[in-house]
Design brief:
The chain is of the alpha/beta class and 461 residues long. Helices cover 35% and strands 15% of the residues. A seven-stranded parallel beta sheet has the order 3-4-2-5-6-1-7, with helices on both faces. A seven-stranded parallel beta sheet has the order 10-11-9-12-13-8-14, with helices on both faces. Strand 3, helix 5 and strand 4 form a beta-alpha-beta unit. This is ATP-dependent RNA helicase RhlE.
Amino acid sequence: MTQFNELGLAAPLLRALEEEGYTTPTPIQAQAIPAAVQGRDVLGIAQTGTGKTAAFSLPLLHRLHENPKRAAPYTCRVLILSPTRELASQIHESVRAYGRHIRPSTALVFGGVPENPQKRAMAKGVDVLIATPGRLMDLLNQRALKLDAVEAFVLDEADQMLDRGFWPTIRRVAGMLPRTKHTMFFSATMPDDIAKLAKELLPDPVRVEVTPVATTAERVNQRVIHTRADGKRAILADLLRGEGVGRALVFSRTKHGADRIVKQLEQDGLSAGAIHGNKSQGQRERALEAFKKGTAPILVATDIAARGIDVDGVTHVIQYDLPEVPETYVHRIGRTARAGASGEAVALVAPDEVALLRAVEKLTRQEVPAEGDIPTGPVPRRPNRQQQQRPPRRDGGGQRHAQGRPGGHASGQPQGGRGTGASQPGRSSGGGFGAQRRPDAARPERKDRGWRDGDFRDSGR
């Protein structure tokens, strides 16, 4: 099978794929989709970047299209578990893109943001719930959702779940699911703990295994430059002024960081554009067109926004920030050296990013050539947006109040653990648990000005 229209998918999904510019499935998609469409359980040995998001989301959307019905309040028909908020967000965006003509109701649940918008989303019931384990368990413990109506379950990046300490939570969640369900299970590796759970969840799966993405890294000329965080701006400008730089793609970890980099480059006399989730579709298209034409040959992008960029002649990929997920590094550098062309990938590594670099080297099984020594001494902490906008609150003893997460945990905690926002469907509310539902815990919820209820609403319905 070489085309999506040969995989047995519903017509609305094929139309969405055509609009996204996809006609030929990747190896994992070609193997997994036909089996999953037929209702077979799937065990996939594949890393991020092999196309596995479409491999599991397209059959799930096909199932919803073929069997349309409204999810009961506080339930979901499909549960997708992801280890980090970044991966969960990418999956959510893909589900909505592929399902644009089916319009499933979706919710995105991860930690680090207020819970109430997520609870309201789940109170209506949703077709697809994408969640990280920690916040999912928080809502389950509060009886804000239940899993007894799950028809299909996807466990993505199982080995990352194990590495991040989520395995006890995963086993608890698995025990709450119905015995009869469609299950898809994906992991880059298969250590004993994961193999044991896979055997319990998947008695007779179709096994799919594809080539690791690490081979991409072997085709690109890579190097890293060690520097302090405040030295990155000058190094970036020097790199972009160097000989042989044609089109350059610069990656930022955040949307605000991307805008800041563009502003700094313009102050340094370099023409650049930005593409990220806060930009309108028109702004994205204009920035991409200027990048293709060469009028603004530097494009600063976040990972999610960059997924749709397919431009020939990218000579340099510069990672201003290293990604939290090592596979993302490989996806980034794959934007250059396409079709046999030469290309260079440069990563600017601050002292607090060295651990991320080591994770990349472990994944790719090669040491990236480095320039400069790792700076020593204390690493200054960057203030978050709220700290920049207002002075810290203090109690009577002069102690700083913990901010960021319900329960008083500090907001500087690394991302990706305990889940985050919800994408709220526009359905009318139904019944709930009635007398069985417990009141929410009596603890004050932080008012985070950086998030609004509208950030969690799913405009799909």
